[in-house]
Structure formats: C-alpha cells, structure tokens
Amino acid sequence: MNPPRAKPQSADIDNTGSQPRAGVRSVEVAARLMEVLAKAPAAMNLKDLAACADMSMSKAHRYLVSLGRAGLVDQDTVTGRYDLGRLALAMGLTALGRMDTVRLAMEALPTLRDNVQETAVLAIWTENGPTVIRFEESAHPVRMNIRPGSILPLLRSSIGQVFAAHIPKSEIAQIIATERGALGGSVPSSETFERLLDDVRARGLNRNVGDYVRGVSAMSVPVFDAHGQIVAVIGVLGHEPTLDTSWDGPIASTLLQAGDEISQRLGHRVNKR
Asked: Taking the complete model, does pTM exceed 0.85, yes or no?
C-alpha cells in the first residue's frame, strides 16, 4: 500500500499576516518526495514515488539524483528502489535527541548497558510502528540485522509487544492486520496475543527468548510520561544461551528500575512494585 500523496505546502505568512514570504520552489518540491518516503512503510520504486508526490517520473528522477548526492535519499543498486538516506536519518535522530523524552532515555542507556553488561536499546512509537533510535553495544555485541531506524513488529518482538500492550487497539489495528497478512502462521493467535499483552501490563515487563531473532533474547520495559502515556521502550539484548530472562532475575530488576527512573523524571507517578 502506497503512502498518501504529499500535499503542496501553502505559502508562509510573514509577521504582519498579509504577504507570503519568498521561498525556494525547488526545495519545496524536493520536500514532497522526502515526505512521501518518510511516510512509506518500505522503499519505493520511481513510478509509485512520483505518483504519490504528484509529479512526473522524469521530474522526480532529477530531484532524486540531487537528493541522493546530498545523502538525503539512497537507491538500492539491485532493486532500484528509493529510501531515506544516511543524512535524512541523521537529521531525524538529531531532532529526536532534542526532545526531553528521548534525551532522558538516551542518557540512561549507557548506564543500563554497563549495569547489565549487555546491549541496551531504545525505541519510540512512530506512525510506522515501534522504531529503534539508539543502540548501546556491550563488550560482546549481538549480531542482528536491526539498526537505528528499523521498524520492529508488534506481534513478534519484545519491544513491539510492550507498545501494543499500552497503545489503544484502534491505533494499532491496521499494523497488526498487515503483520498477520505478511507473517501468517508464524504469529500468535488473537487470543494468545491478548493474553500475552495482559501479562505485559501486569508485570510491567516483557521478554522474547530467541523467537524473533534466532539465537537472540530480549527483555524490555515501557517508559511513561506525566499523563501515563507510553512514550518509549527500553530493552536489553543478548545471546540466548547466556542472557538471563527470568522474571525475577537481575536483568529484569535493573530494567524495571531504569524504566521507572526515566518515567519519574518525565513526571510519571510510579506505583511501588
């Protein structure tokens, strides 16, 4: 499914509220392509990208060449599809890092890594789902095809399940339906998934023992804001044979404490466990 068409930006109004400010039209056109890529669930071919940006393929291609040279767009050399580039990712992560929620969670991640001696990870919710924005690698890193900017599944990942447990069903229904259609029988049934989410809410903690990525286990906890809304998830990753995923183990207790401390700094009133 293609993302919605980018809407042409209206003229900016000056401080008097009367005259539009002069701008650079080519930048606004390029921004439409960037907007489409930012909202797309995956890399796009030229035809669909141009259509969603409401421009011809030849025009879109010219802009994409320049965006690619600037590092704002990448093109897969095999499929020819376009996606956001390294500079676009760096800009997004920088903007996120200036938000209080993300800044506080990022600051806590190295301490969490050092306390458990395992890789720590931070994810936030975006319109595409749970999105990884930070890794803090331990001395024995985990090898997996996940990096900042990766979208995690709601149905199979530890972090995704924590988000699913605390976000209204209406907001995640489409993502879950898409995952069920793509993954088929490899995901839990609706009844099993609901019981799992009940457990996540009751424990304030989740785990995945080698189910999402073979050989890799994970534990994760939510971070809440002053209104009790989930704003992030922090987690710990490790090799399945060695990572202690027991509910009452040292990693679980350290994670719970870290999540509570960040939430408290954001104004959330944490109940005693």
From this structure: no
